[in-house]
Design brief:
The complex is a heterotrimer of chains A (415), B (235) and C (260).
Chain A (H helix, E strand, L loop, with lengths): L1 H17 L2 E4 L8 H7 L5 E4 L2 E3 L4 E3 L4 E10 L7 E3 L4 E12 L7 E6 L2 E6 L2 E5 L1 E6 L2 E6 L2 E3 L12 E12 L2 E3 L5 E7 L2 E3 L2 E3 L4 E6 L5 E3 L2 E3 L3 E6 L5 E3 L2 E3 L7 E6 L5 E3 L2 E3 L3 E6 L5 E3 L2 E3 L3 E5 L7 E3 L2 E3 L3 E5 L7 E3 L2 E2 L22 H8 L10 H12 L26
Parallel strand pairs in A: 1-2, 2-5, 3-5, 4-6, 5-7, 6-8, 7-9, 7-10, 8-11, 9-12, 10-13, 11-14, 12-14, 13-15, 14-16, 14-17, 15-18, 16-19, 17-20, 18-21, 19-22, 20-23, 21-24, 22-25, 23-26, 24-27, 25-28, 26-29, 27-30, 28-31, 29-32, 30-33, 31-34, 32-35, 33-36
Chain B lengths: L1 E10 L2 E11 L3 E6 L6 H9 L6 E6 L2 E2 L10 E4 L11 H11 L6 H7 L15 H13 L5 E5 L7 H16 L3 E5 L3 H7 L2 E6 L2 E7 H8 L4 H10 L4
Parallel strand pairs in B: 3-8, 3-9, 6-7, 7-8
Antiparallel strand pairs in B: 1-2, 1-4, 4-5, 9-10
Helix pairs in contact in B: 7-8
Chain C lengths: L1 H12 L2 H21 L2 H30 L1 H8 L5 H30 L8 H28 L3 H29 L6 H9 L2 H13 L1 H4 L5 H7 L2 H28 L3
Classes of the chains: A mainly beta (415), B alpha/beta (235), C mainly alpha (260).
Chain lengths: 415, 235, 260
């Protein structure tokens, strides 16, 4: 047994020692990447020299390192570019253009299937239906890529980084614009999404479906149809992200639907139509987030249990909280509310009277959306005030007994 | 000069002017008299264009004035209540009226006459009633217009100022002007006017000189003649 | 007309009312900036105040000035001047003096707090613009009321009622009708109703600045084309201007028919 392992190790190391570099250039013997892949041995490195290469469907069926040096691969709208079906593949330094589009199958600039241990790095992907498509794979890194799409309809466009049935993937430092979803997870577990910028995508900046135990941190989501949608997923950690300017009739900074046991902290929600829209979600902790200048800070619909909001800042939102359904043990505790008009006579930093974040007018607008046109009317102020004094229509249990007097989270993400 | 024909004005049910016909051709001082509500103010305001008559015509120097405004160049009007913009200074008020008109004369003489030099820099709200009335007189007589209309000019004047006012009016008459006066002071009317127009219930009851009035009513003085006229209007 | 404007402006600007009004804005501006130390927050607060206060002051001062200056108006009427000249001059003198108090009263504190270098200068200008337009509109409406009513008590009553109606009651009726007919498509109705109230129009202008994110949450196409583009801003501004023009024309036509 021991010998066998040693033997394997020996084979592996000699392989590494023997690995060759294959050069591809326009005037070389090997003038195409496909040709290079064919001649290469497992573990070889293929270096592609500067130039524009017109190739499609480059199937990588052995462990290889493929590097481009100022290389553009133009698929001329005829199909996908890299298709990886072997473990331990690294692809970096290419500009991948024009994969074309199909309604019947998913075309991608980089596609991998059932592989382990991969790295896609420093790629620039333009006008691709899907940019990076990962199916049933694990232990991968997708880093420092720039993806620019021109998706115009949700049906025709593909996603920037699309993962399906995969796990242990790290997605970091990518920039994704103009796709359908920036990053898409379906049945993906134990993965992390760090420092990405996902902007101006048609649907969501980031989209989770049936994906558990994932973390996303320090990403920014601006001007997407909606910032991030997390649906039917458990144990998602969402930290220090920026959700900005996601405007529109169904636009949210963050949409939560049927999720459990999440952690949402240190995020900034700025100028979204709705900061967070919560439906049917349970045991989520929202803390140290900033909700600044949104239409609605948080919208909570029915079926939500045990959600706790603490130490968040609600600043200049048109409506801080709108709430439908029963109390269900959801709490607001020690948040900062810019509209709070109470006082702090004992100087303990907490307001001495309770704050009720749900306004009557928000309830009215929920029932009659056109009433939004009466926003900031003196009459509306009067009815809001009288409702505040004696709640009749709004759930009077929704209250913060210890509203904080000063802004809690001094913004570090400020841009 | 002034020719009023068939002038009518109603305020609701009240007939303020009921077919007035008056013609004033020569210069002189004319007193428009009548009890309260007789229509004398309405008549004057019609001439000034402040009240718009229902029917009839007013011609000044053979020109129809209804709906016109430029003709007021020929009229200098002294209102009954001297209620000027309280925060303007007297000299600003004078300057303002000047700016509306041509034919401004002897402002300085009038200021001297009524000893208004010290008041020129004062705000109107700081003036006494009598001083305001003097300013009112000043504003009227500084304008050299062929027709002068004075509405209760004697109100609030001390005897000295009253004397001066009389003299001013007589001087203007000498210059060949038509002067219309309404007044409750019979002594003043008696002393100054050449002709009387007596109005009652919107109609002209008498038009003529004071002497004619006394003869007609067989009364020794003007006051009694007026009383007689009022108590037996159909005599 | 310019002469009348000039002298009624001088008269008004020296009045106690002007001083009080000017000082009010001056102090309000300094206090808000002192508390917030943030120009843009102070502007938001001021917008809420101004859309209610300028109409109130405009209406009250409008009727008050008219009744106060009746005799003076008569003196002017006896001058060789057109009636339209007199009333339009007085109207402009009045609304310009109110606007002057507003602009200078708020301008001083904001300039002192570094408005020129800040990015909110455009917001501040639109704040002043709205305040000025509302002063012009409600002064004109007040003069219309005063010209139609020789009885001061009635005039004051109607003008306070006008303000109360426009600032509060109108929106109340509006909201009640929206809620009770919420089964019907109401977008056009809602926009239409807004247009007929200058306070609502100005409010929309402010809401477009502050609450655009919330407005875009509404799904209707009419609202979206109105609020989502500059179309809404331009249209509401033009309508406000129309609200100035129509009552001021009416001042002239009704004063032309009036007996003094």
């Amino acid at each position: 047994m021991k010998k066998y392992i040693l033997f394997l190790f020996y084979i592996g190391s000699t392989n590494a020692l023997m690995s060759e570099e294959i050069i591809v250039c326009k005037t070389c013997d090997i003038a195409s990447i496909k040709h290079a892949v064919k001649t290469a041995q497992s573990g070889d490195t293929i270096t592609v020299k500067e130039g524009i290469y017109n190739e499609t469907e480059i199937v990588i069926d052995k462990p290889l390192t493929v590097m481009g040096q100022n290389v553009i691969i133009d698929a001329g709208f005829n199909g996908g570019i890299f298709e990886i079906i072997a473990d331990s593949v690294s692809i970096s330094g290419f500009t991948l253009n024009n994969t074309g589009m199909s309604y019947t199958k998913d075309i991608a600039a980089v596609y991998c299937y059932r592989i382990n241990n991969f790295k896609f790095e420093n790629l620039i992907i333009n006008k691709s239906q899907f940019a990076i498509l990962v199916h049933k794979s694990k232990n991968g890194i997708i880093r420092k890529n720039t993806i620019v799409g021109n998706a115009e309809t949700e049906a025709g466009g593909g996603n920037g980084i699309h993962l399906w049935h995969s796990n242990n993937i790290e997605i970091a430092d990518n920039t994704i614009t103009g796709m359908r979803d920036g990053i898409y997870f379906e049945f993906v577990d134990n993965s992390v999404i760090l420092n990405n910028r996902s902007a101006e995508n048609l649907r969501y900046g980031l989209h989770f479906m049936f994906s558990n135990y994932n973390t996303y941190q320090n990403n920014s989501f601006e001007n997407n149809g909606a910032g991030v949608a997390v649906m039917f997923s458990k144990f998602i950690t969402m930290e220090n992200n920026l959700f900005k300017h996601n405007w529109g009739t169904a636009a949210y900074g963050l949409l939560l639907k049927e999720i459990y046991d999440g952690e949402i902290s240190g995020n900034q929600f700025i100028q979204n139509t709705t900061g967070i829209n919560v439906e049917g979600s349970t045991r989520i902790n929202y803390h140290n987030n900033t909700f600044d200048n949104n239409g609605w800070g948080v919208k909570i619909a029915g079926g939500c249990y045990d959600n706790n909001f603490t130490l968040n800042d609600f600043i200049n939102n048109s409506f801080d909280v709108s709430y439908y359904g029963g109390m269900n043990n959801n709490t607001f505790y020690q948040n900062y509310w810019s509209e709070y008009a109470g006082y702090d006579l004992n100087y303990d930093g907490f307001g001495d009277i309770t704050y009720r974040p749900v306004k009557l007018f928000s309830y009215v607008v929920g029932k009659t959306p056109e009433a939004i046109i009466l926003m900031r009317s003196l009459f509306v102020d009067i009815i809001n005030f009288s409702e505040k004094v004696t709640p009749v229509f709004t759930p009077d249990q929704i209250q913060d007994d210890t509203p904080v007097i000063d802004i809690i989270n001094k913004s570090e993400l400020n841009d | 000069m002034i020719d009023i024909k068939d002038l009518q004005k109603r305020f609701g049910k009240l007939k303020a002017l009921d077919s007035i016909n008056v013609s004033i051709q020569n210069d002189g001082i004319f007193a428009v008299l009548g009890p309260n509500g007789s229509g004398k103010t309405t008549l004057i305001k019609c001439i000034l264009g402040m009240v718009i008559p229902d029917a009839g015509s007013i011609r000044i120097n053979d020109q129809e004035i209804l709906g016109q405004w430029a003709y007021r160049e020929k009229i200098s009007y002294m209102p009954q209540i001297a209620n000027f913009p309280p925060n303007l200074k007297v000299f600003e008020l004078i300057r303002m009226i000047k700016s509306f008109r041509t034919g401004i004369t002897n402002v300085d003489e009038l200021i001297a006459l009524f000893q208004l030099e010290a008041s020129l820099e004062k705000k109107i709200s700081h003036l006494s009633g009598g001083t305001k009335q003097k300013v009112n007189i000043l504003l009227t007589f500084m304008i050299d217009a062929p027709l002068i209309i004075l509405d209760e000019p004697t109100t609030g004047l001390d005897p000295v100022a009253l004397m001066k006012l009389k003299q001013l009016i007589l001087d203007e008459k000498k210059r060949g002007k038509i002067i219309l006066i309404t007044s409750h002071s019979m002594a003043f009317v008696n002393a100054i006017s050449d002709d009387i127009v007596f109005l009652l219930e919107g109609k002209i009851y008498f038009r003529g000189s004071i002497t004619e009035l006394k003869e007609k009513t067989k009364q020794p003085d003007l006051e009694q003649a007026i009383v007689k006229l009022l108590t037996s209007p159909h005599a | 007309m310019l002469k009348i404007l000039k002298y009624s402006f001088i008269d008004l600007i020296r009045s106690h009312w002007s001083y009080v009004y000017f000082l009010f804005y001056l102090i309000l501006g300094f206090v808000l900036l002192f508390i917030n130390n943030d120009l843009s927050k102070a502007i938001i607060t001021l917008m809420n105040i101004i859309i209610v206060l300028t109409p109130l002051i405009g209406t009250l001062l409008g009727v008050m000035y008219y009744y106060h200056s009746r005799e003076f108006t008569e003196l002017l009427l006896a001058q060789p001047l057109k009636r339209s000249t007199i009333f339009f001059g007085q109207y402009l003198g009045l609304s310009i003096s109110l606007t002057f108090s507003l602009v200078v009263g708020l301008g001083i504190p904001f300039l002192a707090y570094g408005l020129i270098q800040s990015t909110v200068i455009f917001n501040f200008i639109s704040l002043l613009l709205i305040g000025s337009l509302l002063s012009f509109i409600f002064t004109a409406l007040a003069l219309n009321i005063a010209i139609a009513n020789d009885d001061r008590i009635k005039g004051f009553g109607y003008s306070i009622l006008l303000w109360l109606f426009m600032a509060v009651i109108y929106d109340g009726l509006f909201l009640v009708s929206l809620v009770s007919f919420s089964d019907y498509p109401l977008e056009k109705f809602a926009l239409g109703v807004t247009v007929f109230n200058p306070i609502d129009l100005s409010r929309i202008y402010i809401v477009l600045k502050l609450d655009i994110a919330a407005l875009l949450g509404y799904t209707g196409a009419v609202f979206n084309s109105f609020f989502g583009t500059s179309y809404g801003k331009i249209l509401s501004f033009l309508l406000l201007v129309l609200w100035v023009i129509i009552p001021s024309i009416r001042i002239i036509t009704s004063s032309n028919k009036k007996d003094f």
